[in-house]
Amino acid sequence: MGIKKSTMENMERLDFWKGKNVLVTGGNGLVGSHIVEELLWNNANVIVLIRSQNPKSYFVTEGLDKKTILAYGDLKDFKRIHDIISKYEIEYIFHLGAQPIVPTALINPVETFGTNINGTINVLESARLCNSVKGIVVASSDKAYGISKELPYTEETQLKGTFPYDVSKTCTDLLAQSYFKTYNVPITIARFGNIYGPGDLNFNRIIPGAIKATLLNETLKIRSDGKMIREYLYVKDVADGYLMLCENINKSKGEAFNLSNGLKLSVLEVIERISQAINKKINYKILNIAKNEIYEQHLSTEKVEKFFGWRTKYSFEDGIKKTVKWYEKILNIEK
Fold first, then answer.
1. Which Pfam families is this protein grouped with (predicted)?
2. C-alpha 270: how far from its chain's center?
3. CB under 8 Å to 91, separation ≥6 — which residues?
4. How far is the C-alpha of 86 from the C-alpha of 67, rounded, in Å?
5. Which of 96, 111, 138, 170 is the most exposed place for a label (fewest CB within 10 A)?
6. Is the dihedral of CA 170, 171, 173, 177 positive or negative?
């Protein structure tokens, strides 16, 4: 199924993407797979840069691997990235490939910096050297802002990541800005908060962990004190936001945009909302061992609304119900 849109919006999207050569780095990840699905829905020619396959990933369970060109490679390999963009005459790039897990970044900062920073340089430099590229959307994050007393974060909030993952996203963001300002590479930057939905196999995250614990009658272990506040955005809304920015690259290039839904929830509130959505009690234990994480983050979306009139389409409850159905499938839960 495509993203919720009006008939006119669907036709405009189809007209834009039909027959276009599109590269998605990290295309078999949570967000990437939903971008790929929407691009395929709109008849684009999709090339996906991946390092390996996971048979339980959304990319595989929904058969997207059979409908795309799989380009195996590592973001840190400049020649491989350049060869892919050149060979397939790539017109548009969604750069999502990264080491995306905050605790992993604390344990292995070198790999995180290598993939997230050098990988971004390789994509942007390859795009600069290939005349076929018309637009790039680079995945940044609310983490790029670092720790700030100014809430909500606006696009003018200073980028000042402190911890390894946050710094890697700050650098990614600044690199994208540099390539636009220096070389006029048509780049726009997307900054999102926490994302959930079908395809997230990181069960250390609160929403996948809570759903899995509920379905398997386990006790959910909460790493924090349960009071950290974040925004939680359904992955279909995220994919829609990415495509919207790329479709409007002539207006969005050189700009960064916060995309969110304004729903601010603590970890314990997330658990309660999930419990209500699926009508089942969630047993949990607070460990309070999370370190080097930002306590509260949320984003202003005034800019993207002003530029494009963009807003999210899925409620938290709708998103959770759709997400639960996917987890029931991969966890082999019989109803």
1. Epimerase (PF01370)
2. 19
3. 20, 21, 22, 132, 133, 134, 135
4. 21
5. 111
6. positive
User: Catalytic residues, which ones?
Assistant: 165
CATH architecture of 8-330: 3-Layer(aba) Sandwich (3.40)
297-334 burial, b at 16+ Cβ within 10 Å, e below that, comes to bbbbbebbeeebebebebebeebbebbbebbeebeeee
Rounded Cα gap, residues 208 and 68, in angstroms: 27
Extract the runs of DSSP E, i.e. beta strands, from 15-86.
21-25, 45-50, 69-72
- Per residue in 134-166, pLDDT tens? 999 999 999 999 998 889 999 999 999 999 999
Q: Which helix (H) or strand (E) holds 246?
A: helix 235-247
Of 215, 217, 316, nearest in space to 260 by CA: 316
